[in-house]
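Case study: Membrane protein.
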Amino acid sequence: MLIALIIVLGIILIGLLVLRFYPVLGGKASQTSRQLISKSTNRSNNKFVNQIPTSMNMNFRSTVKLLVDFVKGNPKGKPSSPIKAVPLLPVGIPNGGLPSVTWFGHSAILLRLDGKTIFLDPMLGKRPSPFPVFGGKRFSESLPIEIEQLPSIDAVIFSHDHYDHLDYGSIKKLMHKVKRFIVPLGVAAHLERWGVDPAIITEHDWWDEFDFEGLSLASAPARHFSGRSVGDRNSTLWCSWVIMGKQAKVFFSGDSGYGPHFEQIGSKYGPFDLTLMECGQYDEKWAAIHMLPEETVQAHQDVKGKLMIPIHWGAFTLALHDWTDPAERSTKAAKANNVAIATPRIGQTVTIGAAEFPTTAWWR
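Here is what the predicted structure looks like once written out:
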């Protein structure tokens, strides 16, 4: 009994030390951040909430079945061989020229607009996990370009603080290249703990509108949740983003279940030349926080988008569907609804507003 008690106490102590000192888990909000958070109208009982009821609860039986299914896995849940990314050379990232986006897999997008370089949700690590030995490995053998080769980045924009979007290792490598970090309320705490200068971070609530070096930006609602550590669920905000320049208007959905906010965003800011819409890692059990591909196409129409690129797929296995299902189902739904959809390879650049765009079913 004494040995068992010592082992239990040892495990508890290790857990407490990890929670206290392991930086990957993120940080606590500063006084300045807490003041901003306290003014938000999108909170209840000291937690951020969605616009409409969004339940993520499952009964005991469903939870056990889900855990068993994840342990079994899906043989088609990842590619049979690693994906080869299209190489992106530094010379292919100009500061001027036509507006464009380059997909890095999952939700990581490099946007060039009005001569500015903006990185959206740059999760460039190998695994979306706080511990490198756990979590599914990235599908692609390498990134389109290594972080060290990237040029100066005018702004990094995050949608929320989940590990498949906000990555400690990526930030440590990127931070010295970035002029500004633009994040939802509360997310600054993580960046500050990791060494980012608070002076170059701005935090935003839903419907905040502001200018950044000639671009007009707005933080808009999403239907999701947040959290990186024990007890911090919904202590930070999640959002979508509207990015408007002289050359084009872009909508970035972040992670979101389907909801009325898409129509609100379309009425307020649409039409958009390009939408970057979440369409992977879904399941009927959690459809409230991750859209099904058919809903993705509807959301694109709700925000009044012209061309859609499906994101949040092609990099990691975070759900039980076949890894190709997001692309197959979204392209099928797009065709049925006469929606223009681009399906670039990882690393392939798409010019916004061009008459032609990639439509090859490269995943087959």
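For the exam, be able to explain this: The mean pLDDT is 94.
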